[in-house]
Amino acid sequence: MLTRHWPISLLAVGAVLLLWWLATFAGWVNPLFVPSPAKVWLALKEIVTEGYKDNSLLSHIGASMKRLLLAFLVTLATAIPFGLLSGYFMRVRALIEPFIEFYRPLPPLAYYTMLVLWLGIGDASKIALLALAGFAPLYLAVVSGVARIPRDRIAGARSLGANGGSLFAHVIFPSCLPDIFTGIRTALGMTYTTLVAAEMVAAVSGLGWLVLDASKFLRSDVIFAGIILMGAIAIAIDLSVRLLERALVPWIGKDL
Questions:
Q1: Is-contact 198 112, C-beta < 8 A?
Q2: Are the beta carbons of 31 and 21 closer than 8 angstroms?
Q3: DSSP 8-state code for residue 169
Q4: What is the C-alpha to C-alpha distance for residues 227 and 196, in angstroms, rounded to an integer?
Q5: Cβ(199)–Cβ(64) under 8 Å?
Q6: What is the pLDDT of residues 72-122, one digit of tens each?
Q7: In the chain, helix, strand, coil percent, each to 5?
Q8: What is the reported pTM?
Q9: How many CB atoms lie within 10 A of CB 64?
Q10: Is 183 in a helix, a strand, or coil?
């Protein structure tokens, strides 16, 4: 487990911070573009205590997390059922997958302008964009999970009387949980990245907007502080999913 080697990770982070401080202290980089760690720390304290542009830091984080949560609930409610059905029924997969494969390689911002025209510049278009960004990776992970279920497991369940909804609820869905959580982590990463990009295009709140607005005034210290906050929140979200996975799927990595 990676957690057993946390001293190595701590040393790596410390080495990067030391190199960053040394580069700014020795004047190897222009402080306008790469501020010192001390200046970034002061900017971070200022944002935490005073907020940014008449809004508290919590309000910016809350706006971003609200969009992320609503979009990901839509993704979960659609990608998992469609993935289970597509993995089990080839006709359903043949019906859905051409559309998935068409839009999946497209950069989310490429069709964001179309969503803005349809849904407006508010949160509705952002939530739709995030849901689409997360749908494809989660859907494909679920389909892959269903395909890896041993056929004799399904046949055995059928012989014991499982069919229809009970087969999906008690055999197929639990068997796919490891792949579902892998897909959730991947989809959350895609959704989070798209969230920041969407807020940079059209928003007046959120962490992405904060970084973009700071760039207009060459506030590189605020930009760095915002990026650090984004990264910390992303790590916290991923850690939460991993802890949930460990609680719900305790057999992962164990010989059964």
A1: yes
A2: no
A3: I
A4: 10
A5: yes
A6: 999 999 999 999 999 999 999 999 999 999 999 988 888 888 898 899 888
A7: 80, 0, 20
A8: 0.86
A9: 26
A10: helix
Indicate the domain borders of the chain: 32-248
pLDDT score at 6: 76
Q: How far apart are CA 192 and CA 233, in angstroms?
A: 10
Check if the beta carbon of residue 153 is closer than 8 Å to that of residue 170.
no
pLDDT tens for 189-226 read: 999 989 888 887 767 889 989 998 999 888 999 999 99
* Cα-Cα-Cα-Cα dihedral sign, residues 145, 178, 7, 225: positive
Residue 129: other Cβ atoms inside 10 A: 26
DSSP 3-state assignment of 52? Answer: strand
Please name the residue that has the structure tokens 């389909």.
143
Asked whether 191 and 136 are in contact (CB, 8 A), the reply is no
| Amino acid type, 91 | R
Tally the residues of the chain. Answer: 256
What's the first-to-final CA gap in the chain, in angstroms? 19
Whether pLDDT at 5 is above 80: no
DSSP string for 68-82: HHHHHHHHHHHHHHH
Sign of the alpha-carbon torsion through 23, 26, 28, 31: positive
> Would you call 55 helix, strand, or coil by DSSP?
strand
The domain over range 32-248 is classified in CATH as 2.40.50.100: no
Q: Residue 255 pLDDT more than 50?
A: no
SS3 category, 255:
coil
